[in-house]
Amino acid sequence: MNHSRRKFLGSLALGLAAPAVIGRAHAATTIVAASLLGEDKPETLIWRHIADAVEKELPGGFAFNIVPNAALGGEKQVVEGIRLGSIQASLSTLSNLSTWVPETQLFDLPFLFRDVEHLNAALAADAGTSLQVQLAAQGIVAPAFVYYGARHLLSTEPLPTPKSVQGKRIRIIQSPLHAQLWEDLGALPIALPITETYNALSTGHVDAMDLTKSAYAGFRLHEVVPHVTETAHIHAAGSVVFSSQFWSRLSREEQEVFTSAAVEGATYFNELMEADERSSVEAVSKEGAIFYAAEDRGAWEKGARGVWDLFADQVGGMSQILALKDL
Questions:
Q1: What is the pTM of this model?
Q2: Residue 273 contacts residue 280 (beta carbons within 8 Å)
Q3: Quick one: which of 187, 192, 249 has its CA closest to 221?
Q4: CATH class, 3-325 region
Q5: Residue 83 parent element (H or E)
Q6: Segments making up each domain of the chain, as ranges
Q7: Nearest Cα to 36, choosing from 77, 95, 65, 64?
Q8: 203-251 pLDDT, tens per residue?
Q9: Which of 64, 56, 1 is nearest to 29 (CA)?
């Protein structure tokens, strides 16, 4: 086991004890794994990869029931199921997890990370390990982080500058940080589950939203918001998550297998996501989506910087923010 996996299991042991007995009954344990997107998307394919890795090491021990297309609810509802134990596994953005661990908002601060390499370095540091411990205390085991891509602005008309956003109704995730970001830029944020956004955009209830390019294509949002301003204001991190109720019933050996499978699955997911983003842009461009470079990037960054000050106390202080910025 490599250092990061030992570090994760060691930190998790502070809050969740594994049974000493390794043996289990002959019947396979069912794992309900929820995915927001379809069978061919990375959010679902990762669970096939993890299931295969677990089966290789623990043959016949576990049966994965992978439920795609948000059939078990939106992102918030799925994590509520994780905490209750009715769903055993899923992915979640760190944005979504801020409902239970506000410190995850550190990784959602706008224009903090230069690129994915910068983000990954921050997640591998003590700040990432601390999040894993805090999430476990809330019933959410997070053995591996994933990268969804950068969030960009999607809209019914071109919105290339911060000034053009003013007065627009923008769909946001249920996050005070995201609400504050768009309020500071002069927009009117409206929190909606991802499963309701297509209808909200098509009826004019909202004018815009932000999302990664892969999810933009996955939810076919280009049909209702064909304009994409490439702001890359947030590099969206997430995690493989398991229910602590499920995890605590695993032996130490099984926990090591699942941790290893999750880490390998995260690497696989990131590779798929990179390829999926390229193919998604190509596909939606053929169907009418138009991509624009964000104009006056300095103004975008200046308009969003107040969020750092407002949320510093919740995410470990300004010194923590600046330490990650300078990694």
A1: 0.87
A2: no
A3: 192
A4: alpha beta
A5: helix 75-84
A6: 3-325
A7: 77
A8: 999 999 999 999 999 999 999 999 999 999 999 999 999 999 999 999 9
A9: 64
